[in-house]
Amino acid sequence: MRFPNPALAILAFGATLAVADIVPTLSTKGLVNSADLIIVGKVERVQQTGSGDITYNGVNYPRRDYTANISIDETIKGEPLPHRFILTFSAPSTDAWGNVAQGGLQPNTYRVIFLNKTASGYKFVSPYSPSLPASPMPCGPNWQVKLGEDAYHKVLQRLLDLLCTDSTPEEKQSALFVLNWTEDFSAAPFLKAALSLPNVKSNPTLRVAIVSDLLHWKDLSVLPLAEEDLFDQSVQSSSFYPKSNLVLAISSLEPQISVPLLARVLKSPEPEERVAAARFLEYTNSETALDILLSALDDPDREVQFAVMQSLGNLTNQHW
Description:
Blueprint: H1 6-12, H2 28-34, E1 37-56, E2 59-77, E3 84-91, E4 93-94, E5 100-101, E6 109-117, E7 122-124, E8 131-133, H3 151-160, H4 169-178, H5 188-194, H6 198-201, H7 204-216, H8 223-231, H9 243-251, H10 255-265, H11 271-281, H12 288-294, H13 302-316
Antiparallel strand pairs: 1-2, 1-6, 2-3, 4-5, 6-7, 6-8
Helix pairs in contact: 2-3, 4-7, 7-8, 7-9, 9-11, 10-11, 11-13
């Protein structure tokens, strides 16, 4: 999802899911800037070594201690470590603002790991995002897109290399999930090139995710692909990347482009897509959106009706 706040996304679509904790927005740039050490490699083994209790902010938590055996292939930031590295960590732990989370590492995974130096060793920069997925291999000699040599772009390159190498669809999805619409726009050339890869273009979930990113970054060359996926009923929303995110990306375009497309989505046979169109027409800040929303007040779906009234209220500063 590309919502700036996961809780807001749940509220926007009228879901009944309860949210116990608000997870900070993932920021690759923030992780890079805050880290003393960034390593890339395979987590060979993770073993529990102890347990106990720990208190954060006056609250007592059960604590588990672990060691992770890591084979380091690259040090992106900080003093290089030996190829074989043992990281000790405990869960839960806190981030720089005192937020508590159960961050850790999984064995047999290849990751970019973000660490801060402590008096006794290292700790995760963020227990919410201790590491990010990465490719052990580069895209290959014929791949033309290189993102840059600074630490942030090296991390982004490792992440996005999953799209052009022999990784699983799930691994490719995990790379796209990390991208932040506000900060990661320099990934656009890489994503544009990845769209031409057969195993990406033929996968509707990957294609919709990439097209959404590019549209949000104002690349109108992918607009025909966006329309094709949006109005092709054989292209189904996925739990990883629903079509509503594509609708959200379209709403960020100029009103003369976005409003007619959202009006078409508002007539979709799928209630979820109509809810998204109704909700995101508000973001166009366009007077032409008012008549379109008014025409949908009698939608047979109650969630669509609610989204229409909410957007009308916000556009007119009158709440129904």
